[in-house]
Amino acid sequence: MTPEGETLLLDGGRALGLDLAPHLPAFAELLRLLQEGNTRLNLTALKTERDIVLKHFIDSLSCLRGGDLGEEGLVLDLGTGAGFPSLPLAIVRPGLDLVPLDSIGKKIRFVEETAQSLGLKNVRPQVGRAETLGRQDEHRGQYDRVVARAVAALPILAELALPLLRVGGRLVAQKGPITDEELRAGQRAAGEVGGQVQAVDAFKLPLSGDARTLIVVTKTRPTPAKYPRREGIPNAQPLF
Ligand code: SAM
């Protein structure tokens, strides 16, 4: 990582209340592996150092705003892609046990190899669809938190994530600006699958100034057995 990249990372971290100085070597290696992986696998549209530092690393870590992810516990990263937000979270929150999930095998293989290269013992990547895991005993109702960055509209996310949470657990959804209509539909969907929207935090990302919203949904009661519906239906026919 260049000195400019390091400064961006440190400044961005500071704006989020994080001291990333001890983690510079890990982020430099993650940047290198991501750029190398990108040329082989075309993993992410973001290719420059500046974009990766701001729009992957700092953006990913912004889910720590508000403290809803906590310092420990079992966290499923629904639709992790090339490992975001899981990999940056695993670096700065060693007490979290992270399960990055994606339906695309090549992305999960990259996350697995990258976690190994970085020596991250708190990352257990998983290939599969959230709808499938949501109906398996070893995953349903097992997670303390679900985090999802840029994956789906809130009503869809609620149906995919809430079955995986234990009662009392939380979904932390990282999104761009959200319309009142999506929020209302998300609130109704959350109610249907056993949850309640707890917080909506609209903010600007440090340095880039991009608009982001963190939505926290708490699971208040068990999800009815009919959810999640089968693969692809939550997306094709959102609850609300
Ligand atoms: N979270 C990553 C990020 O912020 O860079 C990736 C975002 S990408 C736009 C959405 C990812 O979610 C894709 O890799 C897709 O394969 C995955 N995905 C979408 N629906 C899914 C589902 N139902 N189960 C598992 N993965 C899913």
What small ligands are held by the chains? S-adenosylmethionine
User: What is the CATH architecture term?
Assistant: 3-Layer(aba) Sandwich
Write the CATH fold name. Answer: Rossmann fold
Q: Say how many strands there are.
A: 7
How many helical stretches?
Answer: 9
CATH superfamily: Vaccinia Virus protein VP39
The largest sheet is: 7 strands, mixed
Highest CATH level, the class: Alpha Beta
Overall mean confidence score, pLDDT: 96
Give a description of the structure.
This protein has 240 residues and is of the alpha/beta class. It has a single domain, classed as Rossmann fold, CATH 3.40.50. Helix content is 39%, strand content 22%. The protein is built from nine helices and seven strands, in the order H-H-H-E-H-E-H-E-H-E-H-E-H-E-E-H. The protein has helices at residues 3-15, 24-41, 49-61, 86-92, 105-117, 130-133, 154-161, 180-192, 233-236, and strands at 73-78, 96-102, 126-127, 143-149, 165-175, 195-204, 211-219. Strand 1 (73-78), helix 4 (86-92) and strand 2 (96-102) form a beta-alpha-beta unit. Helix 7 (154-161) packs parallel to helix 8. The N and C termini lie far apart (45 Å). 45% of the residues are buried. The mean pLDDT is 96. Bound molecules: S-adenosylmethionine. S-adenosylmethionine (SAM) binds at residues 79-81, 84, 101-104, 107, 129-131, 149-151, 160.
